[in-house]
Structure formats: structure tokens, C-alpha cells
Automatic annotation (TrEMBL):
Pfam families xrefs: Hydrolase (PF00702)
Enzyme Commission number(s) of this protein: 5.4.2.6
Note on how the cofactor is bound: Binds 2 magnesium ions per subunit.
Residues bound to substrate: 29, 48-53, 56, 82, 120-124, 151
Identification of the protein by name: Beta-phosphoglucomutase
Signal sequence, start to end: none
Origin: domain of life: Bacteria
GO biological process, one term: carbohydrate metabolic process
Alphabetized CDD domains for the sequence: HAD_BPGM (cd02598)
Chain positions of site Important for catalytic activity and assists the phosphoryl transfer reaction to Asp8 by balancing charge and orienting the reacting groups: 120, 151
Amino acid sequence: MQDFGDIKGWCFDLHGVITDSWIYHAMAWQETAEILGVTWTDDIQEQLKGRDRMDSLEYILQVGGIQDQYTLSEKQAIAARKNKRYLKYLQKMNPSDVLPGINELLADLQADGYQMIIASASQNAPLEIEKLGLTKYFTKVVDVTQLAHNKPAPDVFLKAAEMLELDVSECVGIDDGLVGVQSINAANMVSIGVGDQQILHEADIVFPSTTDLTIANVRQAFK
Ligand code: BG6
């Protein structure tokens, strides 16, 4: 792993790292799965973390063994309805939905002159950053609609480094999902997982919660 002193950019996943609105995705997907006749499980919920909209739907259909029963336009319509449900939950989002410790971390990063960017699989990321009151930290958000592949492919983190005008070796990526950690690793960035060490075992560094995510702790973990 490189030296912490080389790091200039921090590339953040959104759901589960900056805000817990990920649970709204899970709720909207659960409703969708039940309408499709697919039994919802904790494993499906975990597996959906970080997957983009269509990939999440494909995963649910596959678990139900019904992936061949829908045309592409039917799948797009199902995904659009799920997003409508999600946006309904999102109406209530406000700055109090920022996860513990994150406001402090972002203020410290800005004060120390680090660059920050959102590298999320979500098309709703710019809207959420605005609702969370975090536009002062995140002037840059990767537009996933412009990428060939979403997580676990490296595209979103590669694009994040490019938008920060940094080399991947000068960035850290932070994600709470396994596919997100795999995406960071595939981009050859130092990966920081937030959550369960066993699930996120592929990450270079894992912190159990966002309150542990401080510059001092990351510096220490690099040693
Ligand atoms: C990811 C979430 O950040 O965004 C997934 O972890 C979600 O659960 C994905 O499906 C896509 O979000 P959106 O807002 O583009 O439907």
C-alpha cells in the first residue's frame, strides 16, 4: 500500500457511507420483489448494496428464476416504478440523514485541502447530495449514466480519479458494499470498507462504522 502522504483525493460511495438512505432502496426493492413474487431475504438485501438499478432488478429476477419472463422494456418499466417508490421515500431526506461522523470528516478533509467526489452507482446521487446539504463539499459527482459498466467494474472509481485530475494511486475509495470494494480494488485504489469485516474482507482497510472514519484513523491504518 502506498504512503498516506501521497493521498490527495477521497472518492466516496453514497449509500451506507454518507447517508443511510440505502435502506430506502432496500424497502423499494423489497416491495418490487414481492410484487414480482420473489421472496425477500437478508441475503438479497446485502447483495443489492452498490449494484445499479438494472443490475439490482436482474439480480432479484435471477433469484426468483424468472429472468427470462420479461422483455427489456418491461424490465425498464419495473425499474422505473421502483425508482418512483424510492423518490417518494427521498422526499423526506434532509441534512439530519447524514451518517454519524461524516460531517466532521468532510469538514476536516476540506480544511486539510483534500479533494472529494461522490463515486456512487446511483443516478439519484446529485439530488441526494443537495437534500443532505453537502454541495459545499461535493462539487463533483460521477455521472454513472455515462459509464459503460457499473460496480463491481472499476469505471466509477477510475472516472472519479480522472474528474479529480489525480492518479488512482493518489486516491482512496470508500464503500460499504462488497461490489463497491471490488470496484475500488479493480481501479487499483486503496479500498476502505465501512461495515462488517467478514463481508468486506477484500478491502485494504475496514472500519466498523462511519464514526471510525477519521483522517487520523485512516492515516494510522496505512502504517
Ligand atoms: C447504490 C445503492 O448506491 O445505488 C443501490 O447501493 C441502488 O441499492 C443503486 O440500487 C442505484 O440507485 P439509483 O438511484 O440509480 O436507482
